[in-house]
Amino acid sequence: MKLAVMKLFVLVFLALSSGLLHSQTEKAPLNVVVTTKAGKPIPNDKITFIAAKSKLQIVGLTNEKGQFLVHLPAGEEYAIKVEVIGDEIDYNTFEVPVPPPGVKFNTRTLEIRYDMPKSVVLEDLYFASGKYTIETKSYAVLDQLAEYLIRKKKTKIRVEGHTDSDGSDASNLTLSQNRANAVKTYLEKKGVPSGLIEAKGLGEAIPREENTTSEGKAKNRRTEIHLVE
User: Fold this and answer.
1) Same domain, yes or no, for 218 and 134?
2) Is 207 within a domain?
3) Residue 156: which domain range?
4) In whole angstroms, how far apart are CA 98 and each of 24, 42, 60, 74, 88?
5) Which of 81, 113, 145 is at the close of a domain?
6) Whole-number pLDDT of residue 86
7) 64: which DSSP letter?
8) Same domain, 96 and 52
């Protein structure tokens, strides 16, 4: 899934203090704070740090205040991944240097600010042609979406099915509704409470592109996830 509209703002502060003995494997303690751009804490957010050399992955989950404490081994460059609706957003990297002898890291703050998009297109979701059978190559993106909704607990979504203009209006409306229902059913079977999911088929009513080319029709055949306030 592509979330081109997503923008993350990360502020990383690392500092050293002298006069303290360091262990053989020094680690930098970071208090991670995740909020909206307006400063509202985001609970139950999953943040992953991936070390460039060792490939070590360290995962943190925010509490109700949008915070967690993580300790990152020194001497590594880390990439930050933020998990959003059915996907992970890559951000740029930062380095945790090796401290000199007799020096230890102070706890400092890593702040991540972002606004969740109100809607996304599940680019990696595929159905059998003219049917509402979900293809197996789509399971990964739906499993990720299910994990996200289960973790978030209260996030409600609307699954919207859309078609191109081939066929009658009535048949396209039915097909889009059946596809939206199929996604809803899949998520429920994975453990997402049914009360968090609404399914709605819109047929060919809201195209993204003109239906005059095969490329345009392909973009119009889509499933969208909308956050419900």
Assistant:
1) yes
2) yes
3) 119-228
4) 11, 31, 22, 5, 29
5) 113
6) 64
7) T
8) yes
Which residues touch 210 (CB under 8 Å, ≥6 apart)? 216
CATH number assigned to the domain comprising residue 165: 3.30.1330.60
Per-residue confidence at 115, pLDDT binned at 50, 70, 90?
confident
- Flag whether 1 is in a domain: no
Tens digit of pLDDT for each residue in 141-164?
999 999 999 999 999 999 999 999
Sequence-separated contacts (24+) of 175-179 with Cβ below 8 Å: 175/130, 175/131, 175/132, 175/201, 175/203, 176/201, 176/202, 176/203, 177/201, 178/132, 179/127, 179/132, 179/223
Predicted confidence (pLDDT) per residue in 158-197, tens digit = 999 999 999 999 999 999 999 999 999 999 999 999 999 9
Same-domain pairing of 20 and 97:
yes
* SS3 assignment, position 122: coil
Is 137 domain-assigned? yes
The string of pLDDT tens digits covering residues 80-108 is 999 888 677 887 788 999 988 888 889 99
Beta bridge partners of 151: none
Q: Which two tokens stand for residue 145?
A: 């979406």
